[in-house]
Amino acid sequence: MKKLILVGLLLFGVAVQAQNKKWTLLECVEYALENNISVKQSELDLETAEIEKLTATGNFVPSISANIGLNENTGLSFNPVTNRAQTTTFLSSTGRINVGYTLFDGLRNFRAMQRAEISKLASQYRLSKMKDDISLAVANNYLQVILNKANLEVLVSQNEVTKEQIQQTQELVNAGVLPDGDLLEIKATDASEQQSIVNAENQVQISLISLAQLLLIKDYESFDIVEEGYGIVDSLGETSVDEIIQSAKENRSEIRIAEQNLELAKKDLQISKGANLPTLSAFFGYDTRYTNTPNFSNVVDPDNPTVIRQIGTVESTGEAVVSQFPNTFPVETPPDKFVEQLWENDGIAYGFQLNIPFLNGFNTKASVKRNKVNVERSKFLLEQAELDLESSVYQAYVDAKGGLKSYDAAKTALESQELAYEYAKARYDEGLTNAFDFSQAKLRYDNAQINLNRAKYDYIFRLKVLELFFGIPATELKF
């Protein structure tokens, strides 16, 4: 009984620990890469490319097929062994093995193998890009939760100050130092802050649910993240935008995908041109047959071994010309054994087949032209991908630089508002200003703190986008 209680307590402890688990950003990214539906679909595309490669490899393997047939014929039928028509009921069986191999097909099989390799590589790049996109989305949602929690912490902290001010103002009103209107103003501020706290709590919960949905985690209530302190680091340093663009062109999947699509279009063009060349193939076939019909053989009559038959007439005299022939009669014998018939009735066929295309309704010509157009289109798409990447890097670089400046400005603004708030608080405590002016100074201070939080995490996210362009893997991003 004690053992059962101990096991139960251990299981309960594990369950509580699982419910209280807080996810780090790295855990969220790794979990998303393993479970996200879009990533799984990209992995299926990679498996499809593997199947395409298997099919291309199979084109170099001879085709081998075998078939066997078993028939029972009644009435007038052709005996498959004697090839004679006979009226009877008999059982027959035929078997065949065929082997075929393409010796030359205009290098289309070889080009198809190359195309399968390129297609597999393109699928790998698409999977890599999808993982980067998902990782960035997870990081964005994660930082949004951190931002909302930081804002909530600011509001709760400032509301505690407001509650202290309510108590202090109540004492001053009771002493006749301040009018009742100041107390009402502070209480109104407290009510407004309470409403803002509720809204901030809702924002935290909504952002947690959004992150959990992105991770495909259904336990929304117990899902939470580690509230790590993310500092501001200007990791750009002296790195120029040209260096980032060059690194992006060398590492980003967008360019690699466009390059592989161009190579696929070129291979399709080569394959279509191969249809204009002759196709040479070799074949080999082996067949045999069996039937249970009895055999018939001519046997000489021992009692009358020969007979005289007329074979012609002398034209001048009309005299008959006769000759002696063996006197035979048919005798039915049982069919040969199954194995014996397989060896006696077998045969082989082998040879070569050459197919020379001349005209097929301009289908090949149209296919070649169509693939030439696709090659040119793929070239334009590659060029456009490079331009888009440059534009995205420039935008991310400007956003990161601007985000850092915005953070510095918000930090300076917070310092000024904090001094203004402290000054207003001191004047209010001395009774030199009214509650409305104090509330306005406190509101500006609260907004400055929230603006600083927003600028901070906005800059962190934009910096991570830039680091991805620079070639840092999503799972190695440092926050």
UniProtKB/TrEMBL annotation:
<protein>
    <submittedName>
        <fullName>TolC family protein</fullName>
    </submittedName>
</protein>
<feature type="signal peptide">
    <location>
        <begin position="1"/>
        <end position="18"/>
    </location>
</feature>
<keyword id="KW-0812">Transmembrane</keyword>
<dbReference type="Pfam" id="PF02321">
    <property type="entry name" value="OEP"/>
</dbReference>
<keyword id="KW-0998">Cell outer membrane</keyword>
<comment type="similarity">
    <text>Belongs to the outer membrane factor (OMF) (TC 1.B.17) family.</text>
</comment>
<keyword id="KW-0472">Membrane</keyword>
<dbReference type="InterPro" id="IPR051906">
    <property type="entry name" value="TolC-like"/>
</dbReference>
<keyword id="KW-0813">Transport</keyword>
<keyword id="KW-0732">Signal</keyword>
<dbReference type="InterPro" id="IPR003423">
    <property type="entry name" value="OMP_efflux"/>
</dbReference>
<keyword id="KW-1134">Transmembrane beta strand</keyword>
